[in-house]
Amino acid sequence: MANSPTRQTCSEALVSSQKASGYIESNGTITHLASFPLFTHESPEQWTTYEHMLYSCLRTGDDKAAHFFLQKLALRFGKNDERVMGLRGLYQEAMAEDSSVLLQMSREYDEILVEDPTNTPVRKRQITLLRSLSREADAINALVELLVASPTDIESWAELAELYVSQGLYQQAEYCLEEILLSTPNAWNVCRTFRPLQKHIADVRARFMRDWARYCTFLPLYLRIGSFLSRNRCVAFAEA
């Protein structure tokens, strides 16, 4: 598989998913011997291909094939494997019929993370789910917790910066981009985002200082007007 499944175009995902039937026919039914490598001929590339097929089948709506590959991976690595748990969450989210099911899944993710806060695949599924439910504040908190456990996760820093920008928290977003540049100083795409963001922050600061200066200039006048109106109100009340 040449490209990462999360970066495939729609046409690439379709071509990949069309190969699923061939993989299923060549591998036959799922047997419990798959969990014992001594009894099977396998390679790391085989399981990577299964994972890519799972992504592609979900994108193209081939749910049965996606479930087949998920079962294969769960049988080989175990249902409690962190990566398998993340893939199972992805499959269940794709199968969800309404938001109530997604909310239930979010609670299940919380329970898993209480037991194991370092479960990165499940944490990332939770973040994606929270964003799909328009719960950006909760997604930001989850990303911060993820980065506390894994401070070198560049993709998570980038996602956190994106969320901060969407909430108007530009200084926090600038900090996130700085963290990315510390790890990957030659990341030209981050530099391209960083410079306009810095300019925007500078413009916001300049606008705030300009408004503050104008307020301070007219503050004595506002106070005199307020005092005058208050005094006239008291006189009118006394005469009444």
Give the tags.
single chain; 240 residues; mainly alpha; elongated
Number of strands: 0
Helix and strand run: HHHHHHHHHHH
Rounded Rg: 27 Å
Based on Cα principal axes, name the global outline: elongated
Strand content bin: under 5%
Characterise the protein shown here.
The structure is a single chain. This protein is mainly α and 240 residues long. It has helices at residues 10-18, 20-27, 44-60, 63-77, 82-95, 99-115, 120-132, 136-149, 154-166, 170-183, 188-239. Helix 1 packs across helix 3, helix 5 runs parallel beside helix 7 and helix 10 runs antiparallel to helix 11 (188-239). It is elongated. The model has no long low-confidence stretch (mean pLDDT 77).
Summarize the helices and strands and which ones pair or pack.
Elements: H1 10-18, H2 20-27, H3 44-60, H4 63-77, H5 82-95, H6 99-115, H7 120-132, H8 136-149, H9 154-166, H10 170-183, H11 188-239
Helix pairs in contact: 1-3, 3-4, 4-5, 5-7, 6-7, 7-8, 8-9, 9-10, 10-11
